[in-house]
Amino acid sequence: MSEAAAIQKNASDEEQVKSAQSETILYVDGVSVTFDGFRALNNLSFYVEPGELRAIIGPNGAGKTTMMDIITGKTRPDTGDVLFKSEIDLTKLDEAEIANLGIGRKFQKPTVFESHTVFDNLLLACSGGRGVFQALFHRLSDAEKIKIEKTLVTIMLEDKRDEMAANLSHGQKQWLEIGMLLMQEPELLLVDEPVAGMTDSETEETAKLLRSISKEYSVVVVEHDMEFVRDLDCKVTVLHEGSVLAEGRLDHVQKDPRVIEVYLGR
Ligand SMILES: Nc1ncnc2c1ncn2[C@@H]1O[C@H](COP(=O)(O)OP(=O)(O)OP(=O)(O)O)[C@@H](O)[C@H]1O
After folding, report:
1. Distance (Å, rounded) from C-alpha 243 to C-alpha 45?
2. Could you tell me if the CB of 50 is within 6 A of ligand 1?
3. What distance in angstroms lies between residue 243's CA and the mean position of ligand 1's atoms?
4. Ligand 1 atom 26: the closest Cα is on which residue?
5. Looking at this predicted complex, what is its ipTM?
6. CA 151 to CA 145: how far, in whole Å?
7. CA-based torsion, 111, 117, 123, 128: positive or negative
């Protein structure tokens, strides 16, 4: 390639990278991380658009949790870029700063306040740093009331509002915790294996719930349950050995011989 052509190609590559960045809520590019000589993420790159619902699948040890840890500031990458809304460099921020930016993370195990009602759990989640006592006894603003009512409908727990969280089923606790994250109005929601341990009907309802949430927020879901991933009806990223093995609609990646070999065929 001539020098001029090489310069032009570099410029066009840079433009492509800029254009990918400018359309993303999450930009993960060339991320690697090594633990004690073991490469958990290996030049990982993927991009999530604003308002997108994305499923991340892959065999055990593929790097899914490590990827979430990198985005939320729990783990620092050795190399690579992780940008929120195209320009905020998440690798320079700590976990609290990243959460305050509007990136909510839902871990696999629900952590709700068991001895409080569903309503109060949502109230506590929007308390903005007030202590439990102050949060529960301060006068609710109309805006807060509307937000809680709207969230109760979204998470399908309207008729359980006065129920103690301890009395909810496992699936309902997961929905409540998703609701608690929604109270903080995250722009990006990361959800780790939400349907593990759920009944079939709860699993179906959860897919509907995440699809509806993704109309307002960007959502990234890590999950192993293929029926559930099918119900999400979204783009799927398959991770393997710390890199993206395949990406596209589930029907497309399910036919990929490499995906069948390392994951689905097992
Ligand atoms: N802090 C750590 N120290 C050493 N090795 C680690 C650490 N965290 C992760 N690993 C290793 O990195 C690899 C990727 O792990 P990770 O938990 O990200 O995979 P995963 O795709 O989430 O797997 P699973 O589906 O089982 O949850 C694994 O081999 C794991 O043992």
Report:
1. 7
2. no
3. 13
4. 60
5. 0.93
6. 10
7. negative
- The CA 240 to ligand 1 mean position distance, Å, reads 12
- Provide the token pair at 164: 């103690």
Block residue for tokens 């689905």 = 264
Per-domain residue ranges for the chain?
25-264
CATH architecture of 25-264: 3-Layer(aba) Sandwich (3.40)
Kindly state the helix (H) or strand (E) to which residue 172 belongs, with its residue range.
helix 170-183
d(C-alpha 258, C-alpha 266), whole Å:
12
Helices 170-183 and 118-125 pack at an angle, to 10 degrees, of 30
**Ligand 1 pocket member 38 (CB < 6 A):** yes
The identity of residue 35, as a single letter, is F
pLDDT digits 0-9 by tens, 46-65: 999 999 999 999 999 999 99
User: Which residue's C-alpha comes closest to atom 7 of ligand 1?
Assistant: 35
Query: For the segment 150-181, what is each residue's pLDDT rounded down to a tens digit?
Result: 999 999 999 999 999 999 999 999 999 999 99
Pocket perturbation via mutation, ligand 1, pick of 31, 60, 70, 240 by most ligand atoms within 8 A of CB = 60
Which residue's CA is the closest to the ligand 1 atom numbered 5? Answer: 35
Neighbours of 6 (CB within 10 A): 10
**Positions of E strands within 20-121:** 26-35, 38-48, 53-57, 79-84, 88-89, 103-106
CB 233 within 8 A of CB 227: no
Cα(156)–Cα(179) distance, rounded to whole angstroms?
A: 10
